[in-house]
Amino acid sequence: MMPFSFFQECSHKSSSTTNNSFTFKGGCPPIRPTIRYCKVEVLRSPRLTFEPISSMPALVNPNPPPELLSWTEHPVTTEPLDWAPLAIIDLAKFDQPGGKQELANELKDAVKLWGFWTVINTGISQEQLDRQLDIGYTFFKQPLAEKKKVVCNFSEGNYFGYREPYRLIGKSGVKENMEMLNLPKYTSHYESFPRHDLIEAYKDEIQPFHRLVWDNVIRKLFILFAIILELPEEYFVEKHHYDKPSEDHLRYMIYHPRPAEEDAKTGGQWSPGHTGFGAMTLLFSQSVAALQIRTPNNEWKWVKHVPGGITCNAADTLSFLTKGYIKSTVHRVVRPPADQANLERLGLFYFVRPGDDIPMVPVPSPVLIREGLLSEEEARLGEEQASEAVKGFEYVRARVKNVHNRNARHVQDGKGTHEVFRVKNLEVQDFYA
Ligand SMILES: O=C(O)CCC(=O)C(=O)O
Ligand SMILES: [Fe+2]
């Protein structure tokens, strides 16, 4: 008997098809609805339906990947919340004549003042997004033992893998309500990193998606930053390239609702105020309101759902490289409004980190010099001091270790705290109340 393997040719091409829906009849193997098990040239829709046939055991995959559960986006809140006025950056303009310059102008204030903005028209389809959410949701619904097969090694500041919500929040006696899975890039550097069976089974969808986010969104934003800072267009792209080693990861994350009495004990905190650890964070916009940012006036404002959009925030290392010109904004996650407080909140993210060997020295930008953030001498010395400087990998690993290699999480106790985290000359406040 011939085993049915990945990419083995099968007879689907000759099956009956219609324009947009593909229902395979007669002669098809009894495999689950996925495009991964056969090379089918006619496929255009990521969601296929196969009619199960009871015969043809020769083509049965002995270990089919589990069926995906289906994640459904919740309705938006009807409560009038104090929304943050985030700029909307329309990436459809990027390749139009003068488009990059126009977008750079629009993004400039957002990165200087708010550190948060939303991109739309990313070229990532709703179907692609839905599939990722389904994969993430299915992952979290697996038994804990399965999820723990690949876990984050926080003693080394390594964020790749599954993070179990086992820690307590301060001294409240309340446990964390969030779990996550961080997937490293699909490049040769991470080939030997172990991946969960479910993630392996859906590799043919996750791998291109991982890169698509970088190509379609991250690369463009880095070009816009370079234009804003009057640097060569590829300046930041090269320092954060997908093909070079970095701690970048795609993340599935789920928050589980807590009883109101438990939330009351931690001031409604789901994730304490913090700045991003790496270069930039992309959050595929979701309907459950919970993310808040701290405004330039130190008020907390809610981040509003923009269907099909991606909420982006600049993080610590971009702020280091630009001497604070690009703002690493404080944000937190809180109990959602009453009409959403009992809902699971599933998130899909891409966390951008600096290249592993990128020195954390200021970029030689004429804008930083004009703004008085950088002296001519510092700009020149920066290059010379690069070999001595903290590198991207060193900073990010140390930061992750400092925040996560603890038995209890920070708590917002309303008293404020100024615990500072340092690596050589680099310094950030650990968390914010
Ligand atoms: O869940 C969110 O909306 C944001 C989470 C976050 O800030 C983080 O994981 O760094
Ligand atoms: Fe964050």
From TrEMBL:
<dbReference type="InterPro" id="IPR050231">
    <property type="entry name" value="Iron_ascorbate_oxido_reductase"/>
</dbReference>
<keyword id="KW-0479">Metal-binding</keyword>
<dbReference type="InterPro" id="IPR005123">
    <property type="entry name" value="Oxoglu/Fe-dep_dioxygenase_dom"/>
</dbReference>
<dbReference type="Pfam" id="PF14226">
    <property type="entry name" value="DIOX_N"/>
</dbReference>
<feature type="domain" description="Fe2OG dioxygenase">
    <location>
        <begin position="220"/>
        <end position="354"/>
    </location>
</feature>
<dbReference type="InterPro" id="IPR027443">
    <property type="entry name" value="IPNS-like_sf"/>
</dbReference>
<dbReference type="GO" id="GO:0046872">
    <property type="term" value="F:metal ion binding"/>
</dbReference>
<dbReference type="GO" id="GO:0016491">
    <property type="term" value="F:oxidoreductase activity"/>
</dbReference>
<keyword id="KW-0408">Iron</keyword>
<dbReference type="InterPro" id="IPR026992">
    <property type="entry name" value="DIOX_N"/>
</dbReference>
<dbReference type="InterPro" id="IPR044861">
    <property type="entry name" value="IPNS-like_FE2OG_OXY"/>
</dbReference>
<protein>
    <submittedName>
        <fullName>Gibberellin 2-oxidase</fullName>
    </submittedName>
</protein>
<dbReference type="Pfam" id="PF03171">
    <property type="entry name" value="2OG-FeII_Oxy"/>
</dbReference>
<comment type="similarity">
    <text>Belongs to the iron/ascorbate-dependent oxidoreductase family.</text>
</comment>
<keyword id="KW-0560">Oxidoreductase</keyword>
